[in-house]
Amino acid sequence: MSEELEKEERMYKSIIKTIKQAPLEEFYASGHRTCQGCESALLMRYLAKISGERTIVVGATGCMYVANTTYYTTSWVVPWVHTQLGGSGGAALGTAAALRALMRKGKIKEEPINVIVFCGDLGCADMGLSGVSNAMTYDYNLLIILYDNESSANTDIQETSMTPYGAQTSFSRPGTARRIMKRRWKKSVVPMIIAGHRNVRYAATTSPAYPLDTLNKIKKALSAGGPTFIHSLDPCPKGWDYDPMYSHELGTLAVETGIWPLYEYIDGKIIYNEPTKGIVEGRIKRKPVREYLEKQGRFSHFVEEDFEHFQKMVDEMYESWEIPGVMPIKSVELARK
Amino acid sequence: MTQVAEKEILLNGTQAVAYAAMYADVDVTAAYPIRPYTEVMDTISKLIADGQLDAEFIVAEGEHGQFEIVKHASLVGARTLVGTSGVGWLYGMEAIVVTATDRAPVVAVIGNRALDDPGAYGVEHNDALMVRDVGWLLVWVDTAQEAFDTALLAYRIGEDPRVLIPVGVSMDGGFLTHSEQIVRLPDKELVKNFLPPYDRGKLRVHPDNPISVAPQVNEDWVTEIRRQHDEGMERARTVIKEAYESFKKTFGRYPGTTRDITMPENPFVEPYMVEDADVVLVGMGTVSKPMKVAIKNMREKGIKAGMLRIRWFRPFPAEDVMKYLANAKVVCVVDRDYSLGSPFRGGVVYHEVRSSLYDLDERPKVLSFIGGLGGREITIQDVEKIIKIGVEQRDTPLTRHTYWVNVRGDPW
Ligand code: SF4
């Protein structure tokens, strides 16, 4: 069997079919002080669970740094290192390159060690993007995870390029002269990664509200070989202004309204997952975006016209807009027929 | 048994450091282009391509990434080489600072270059000096031989468990980065005796050693951590001395010298005709060349001039400065940098020297000369002029602290 095929086999054979098959051990344990209902914390738990003991985790500045690694109470059971806000790509490369060199030169034992770097909106999508992109051009085994809470949550909820249209943050507050301060549309990072980096064999979007899907995506990313990328939309009760008990509900609504399509890119193919698959195949009808937006305080200033605009933009994404790569979703389906 | 060097080769300053990195068997290098440091990476890449060095060669997306790469590689236990110049050094500054605070002993070549704007390729020391307060070891070299030797020493000193601090090997852009000189390369086996493998011990990031590096401490621990860093910096003084002695023992010559030329054996400074001098010039890097010639010329005219070249700027050799300058009447510090708005509008080295002399019972007068910025030459005539001003100021009450050397429209 060719090495490629073997890799693929490994990737699919190891799929977790029920949550009971997930490993019991936790490598992201107690000790953190994230907010109640923090979906990013859950994402960290998933990634540590799947990657296991033979892992080095690097975290860029952001909520998951500040809230997770208070000195003496760090929640990381595996080795963990901080990197600067824009340092994710360099940190990933440095760690992976050191392991490769030291193993090749017989300075440390040869074995597979997972290198995972997580970064938030700023550390991955804004100032850190060029470094992340550079890391994706090399062939080191590494996984970069963008945990997206749609703001700079750690510094008190400021606008980033990931903040949705119209959302209130302390940088985008509605006023009497201007109701909508955040007028730019959210950036799409996974399409950028897959369109621009041929080395990337696996990239995906996830939502912690779909645990099995998320666990498997991390698993596949770690076994794909080479640089891989995951973008996770993580509801944040503090920044989105809702009761923490609704985190999962908002996560599912983001997918069901079509705002956050779940898909994975494997070696040139796009595969839709969970409800998104049904939506794309026409079996499930998208819920109105209003259902998602109305449940969050950050959109409380929306009037009819804003809901309509938001809906129109999401509709376009399915009809004619470029997602999840260089084609509109509908045309992917048309091409398959 | 002590052996002498194996072979001689023509190298410029940056190439010499690349060769030292090859002898040190570095594991990871990170490159990003900017003149004039770049040739160190050109050379490393060729050494790797030719199979003379087994290392990962990563081209970063910028200096910030470049320093993050080596910092993290170093934390995992890899020996690393990196470098930059001028505004590149500043672009990487955030990562450069945490390289020190995370105690990653990377070795960086800084090919000194003026800071933009306006753009200029030539030497100015303000780039490297940006880290003087944040915990890097900083050394200025004067010849390609010294560059080679100092880079080897840098690995030995920075990686010492008592130190664990990154080292910046600074050299004058153009004057040293691009001028070729004969360099004596040692026997590879001897280098193994001199330079033990890099071992971070309990601080190594590896699944067998699951530590957390640089967690959030808020206000609780920063003071203690800075203090520990400072203690490492202090211990470096001892480790530097030991390393220079061990270098001499291993290779049969003092660092920075070839077999033929002898140099006073002090790791921190190079004194030149300083013992009986009334007027002592102080500087860093290749300015020592015109200084030495000018001193000889002035001595022929009966003026007792001397020089003290600062080699290690961090930790700053205050004791040596005191020792060698105690008997001087006037000290003329020639800065290839400036500190705008500083006391008496002086240069950076001037302030360090002046402060080092404060506790002397009889203090010499200290003058600041700012010159050669952006790569302009400091000529022998310029230095002679500086010495003359020193002599003039010797016997009168000090009338002026700072002079700009050879500024257009300014009588010089
Ligand atoms: S602010 Fe948001 S992302 Fe940060 S810890 Fe709280 S819930 Fe999580």
UniProtKB/TrEMBL annotation, chain A:
Its EC number is 1.2.7.11. It is an enzyme of class 1 (oxidoreductase). Keywords: Oxidoreductase, Pyruvate. The keyword Transmembrane helix does not apply. Residues 61-231 form the Thiamine pyrophosphate enzyme TPP-binding domain. InterPro entries: PorB-like, THDP-binding, TPP_enzyme_TPP-bd. One of its GO terms (molecular function) is pyruvate synthase activity. Transmembrane segments: none annotated. Heterodimer composed of an alpha and a beta subunit. This is 2-oxoacid oxidoreductase (ferredoxin). It comes from Metallosphaera prunae.
Automatic annotation (TrEMBL), chain B:
CDD domains: TPP_PYR_PFOR_IOR-alpha_like. It catalyses: a 2-oxocarboxylate + 2 oxidized [2Fe-2S]-[ferredoxin] + CoA = an acyl-CoA + 2 reduced [2Fe-2S]-[ferredoxin] + CO2 + H(+). One of its GO terms (molecular function) is 2-oxobutyrate synthase activity. Its EC number is 1.2.7.11. It comes from Metallosphaera prunae. It comes from the Archaea. The keyword Oxidoreductase applies. Pfam families: PFOR_II, POR_N. Residues 277-383 form the Pyruvate:ferredoxin oxidoreductase core domain. Heterotetramer of one alpha, one beta, one delta and one gamma chain. Keywords: Oxidoreductase, Pyruvate. PANTHER family: 2-OXOACID OXIDOREDUCTASE (FERREDOXIN), PYRUVATE-FLAVODOXIN OXIDOREDUCTASE-RELATED. This is 2-oxoacid oxidoreductase (ferredoxin). GO terms for biological process: response to oxidative stress.
